[in-house]
C-alpha cells in the first residue's frame, strides 16, 4: 500500500520516521563536509605557521616549504569548495539551516580572499601578526561551520562525536595560536605581560576544550590522546612554556629557541591531527550506521502498518482504533484485530518515547555547546559595555568565577541575567501601568 | 540574475534567507493548526464536563446539552482533521518534524476513538472518572502538539506567543480538571485526602502556568486575564475551594453545591477562552507580519546581491572579495567596487549577528519549555524508580524544593544529574580500564 493511501494515523507515523531518515541523510552530507573542513583547517594551520616564520625571517629560507604548504591548502580548498557547491541549498527549508548557510557564505568569502593574502605574504606586505590574524579569521569561520553542524545535528550519537570533534578542533586551533604567540615571544627573546596573558589564556582554553572532548569521545580517541600526552614532545613543550613564563625584558633568552618551539609544537599539532582523523572516521561510520538503521526501521514500519491498514480496510468496523481495545482496559473481543490494534498503539507509544529520549539526550549533549554560547555572549557584553579586549573580558569572567568559586558558565549566566533584568526594567514598569 | 547563477558566496547568503522564509511559512501552517486545536480543546473540555455530570446523574437530565456539545466538538474535529491532512508530510525533511508528526498521529488515533467513547458514555458503560480520563488523554495529546509547535518554532516573537498560549491552554486544562475533581467531591458531599491533594496540585499547576503566560504574553492579554481575576465568578470559585478544603467524611456539605461549582467553573473556563482567542489572533498576525518582512528582505537582498554579482562579473579582477578592501584595513583602491564589497561583507556580518541573536532569544524563550521537560522527566523517574503515582511524585519534588528553598526545576535537575551519575558509574570504570 503506497504511503499516501494509508489511513491518516499511519501516514503520520510513517512521515515521522521519514523525517528522521531525511534529517539523517542531510546530516550525513554535513558530516562529510566537516571531515573535509578538518583537513582544510589542518593545512591552513600549517600554512599559517610557515607564513609566520617566513615573514619573521628576513631571508627566503622558508619560502620553499611555505609554497609547498600553500599548494597543499589549495588542493583541499577545492575539495571543500566542491563540497559546499554540491549541497542542496534549493531544497533546504528548515530555519536552522539558515545559520549553517550563512557560516558557509562567510567561509566562501574567506576562501576567495586567500590568493590575494598569499601574494601579499610573499611580497612581505604584511606583518607576521597580520598574516596570522587573516588565517585565524578564516579558520574561525571554518570552525563555526563545525559548531553549527554539531548544534543542529538531530541524532544524539552523531551529536556526541561532533561535540567531541568540534572541541578537539578548537583545542588544536588554540595550540596553533599558542605556537604563533610563542614564535613571536621567543624570536624577540622574551614575553611581555600582554603576551604572557595571551599564552595563559590559550593554554587554559586548550585544557577546557580537551576536557569536553574527553567527556564525549570514545575510549579509543581518549587512548590516542593519552598517548600524545605521554610523548617527549609534549614534555618538552611544557618545559618551554615554563621558560617562556620566566622571561622578561631584563631576563631574555636565546632567540634560537624559537625554532625549537616551532618544531616541537608542529609535531604536537600533527599528532593531534591523528585524533581528529579517528573522530572523523567515527563520524562517517556512525552516519552510515544510523542511516542504515533508519532505512530498515522505515521499511519494517511501512510493512507492518501496511498489513494493519489492509486488515482495517477489509473489516466492517474500525478494528484498528476501536475504543474497546486500546484505551479503556476492556477485554478484547476480536483476538486478531485487537492484537494488531494493540501493536499499533504500542508502536506509537514506543516511537513517542524514543523521540522524547532522543530529544532529552540531544538537550544534554548540546548543553556544553550552550555553555560555550553563554560564555561568548557574556564576553561580548563585557567587550561592548566596558570596552574590554576579548582577552581582558575573558580574564574578568575567570577572575570573578575564582573569587566566587563558581563555574565560568554560571558567572556568565548571572552576568547576562543581570543585564537582561536591567534592560527590561523600563518596559516592565510601563506595562504595569497599562494593566 | 537567477539565484543559481550567482557567485557561491552570494548564493549561500540568499539560501540562508530563503531557509528562514520557508521555515516561517511552515511555522505559519503549524500556527493555523494550533488555533484550531485551541477551539477543539475548548469543545472537548465542555463535552468532558457534561459527560461527567451526565454520568454522575442517574436521570437523562443532561443528555440534551451533552448531545449539543458532542455535535459542537464533532464540527471542530473535522476542521482539525482537515488541517492535519492538508499538512505537507511528504515535503518535510527536518528531523524535528518527526516529533510533531508523531504527536499528530497520536491525536488522530484519539479522534478515531471518539465515536466509540461517546456511544459508551450514553450507554453508561463508563464511570465519570473513566470518561474524564479518556477525554483528558486526548486533550493532553492535543496540548502536546501545541508544545511541539512552540518548541520547534524558529522565530522568537512567534515562539513567545506560542509559549504564552501553551501555558495558558495548559492552565485552562488544569482548571477543567479541577472542575471535574470538584464535581466528584461535591457530589459525594466531601473530599477525601487523595482528592484534596489532587485539588491542591491542580490549583498550584494553574498558578505556575498563568505566571509563565503573564511573562510571555502582551499587555492586552495580561489585562484581559486581570479582568477575569477581578470578576465575582472567580471570587466565588475561590470561596468554594475553601469550602471543599474544610470538608471531610465527618464534615460533609450539601451535594447541591455540585451544580453551583460546575456552573461557576464553566463560566470561568469560558472567560479564559477569550484570552486564548486573543493569543491565537496575535499568533496569526505575527506570522503574517514575519512572513511579509522575510519576503521583503529576501527580495531586497536578492536585488542588491544581483547588482553586486553583475559588477563583479563585468570586472577584470574580483572586486567583490579582494583582500585589499575587506579584511586587512588597507585604503580602498577602487571606490565603487570597494563600496559594494564593503556592503556585502557588512550584510554578511549583519545577517550573522541577527541569526545569532535570533538563536539566543529562542534559547531564552525555550528555557521555560525546557524547565517543564526537566520537571516531567524527574517526575517520570520518581514514578518508575519508586513506584509513585504522578501526583505523589510531584508532591515529593515540591516538598524537597520547599525544604531546601530551591526552585522546583533545580530540584528536578539535581535529581536527574544524580541518577545520570549513578547510571554512568559502571561504564565509566570499564572505560578507565581500557585506557
TrEMBL record, chains A, B:
GO MF terms held by the record: RNA binding
Alphabetized InterPro entries for the sequence: ANTAR (IPR005561), CheY-like_superfamily (IPR011006), Nitrate/nitrite_sensing (IPR013587), WH-like_DNA-bd_sf (IPR036388)
Coiled-coil portions: 345-372
Xref: SUPFAM superfamilies: CheY-like
Domain of life of the source: Bacteria
Residue ranges constituting the ANTAR domain according to the UniProt record: 355-416
Gene3D superfamilies in alphabetical order: Winged helix-like DNA-binding domain superfamily/Winged helix DNA-binding domain
Keyword Coiled coil (UniProt): yes
Keywords attached to this entry: Coiled coil
PROSITE patterns (UniProt xref): ANTAR
Keyword Coiled coil applies: yes
Name by which UniProt lists this protein: ANTAR domain-containing protein
Native source species: Pseudomonas straminea
